[in-house]
Amino acid sequence: MTAMQTIGQAPFAVLLHLAAAILALVIGAVVVSRRKGTTRHRWLGRLWAGLMLFVAVGSFWIQMSGRFSWIHVLSVLTIASLVYAVWSIRRGNMRAHQAAMLSSYAGLFIAGAFTLLPNRLLGHLLFG
Questions:
Q1: Rounded CA separation 74/62 (Å)
Q2: pTM of the model as a whole
Q3: Are 85 and 100 in contact (CB under 8 A)?
């Protein structure tokens, strides 16, 4: 059985979470690499933040052994960071906004790396 066949058998919540996370990785790369302050930046940033919020909140429906794990702390930190980033930019604090958004984006990579471990659900689905 291939990894894609195995992932295809994952619960719907996992598939939705994974799709949103991958989309957030791609859109986040565009937002980070493009010019800031433009209309496109704001709209893509809102889309990215929405995806990140969806990924973070959605993670609470994904639990190994029916309980939360330490990785769910990253979800709480992501939600807090997104709220702080929006609050900061609305008050004109671009440095705080940028730092919060970049830390959320970095957190997505960190969480993604940890989910690939063999004892995690995605790692188990991909690598057996």
A1: 14
A2: 0.86
A3: yes
Amino acid at 119: N
DSSP label at 35? P
Among 8, 128, 4, 122, which Cα is nearest to 59's? 122
Residue type for position 4: M
Find tokens 């989309």 and name the residue.
23
Query: How far apart are alpha carbons 65 and 93 in whole angstroms?
Result: 42
Hey, CA dihedral for 107, 108, 110, 115, is it positive or negative? positive
- Report which DSSP code applies to 69: -
**Tokens (6 digits) for 29:** 């790369």
DSSP state of 64: G
Compute the radius of gyration of the chain from its Cα atoms.
Answer: 16
Helices 12-33 & 39-58 angle (0-180, nearest 10): 150
Q: What's the pLDDT tens digit per position in 7-32?
A: 677 788 888 999 999 999 999 999 99
Q: What six digits make up the tokens of 12?
A: 């719907």
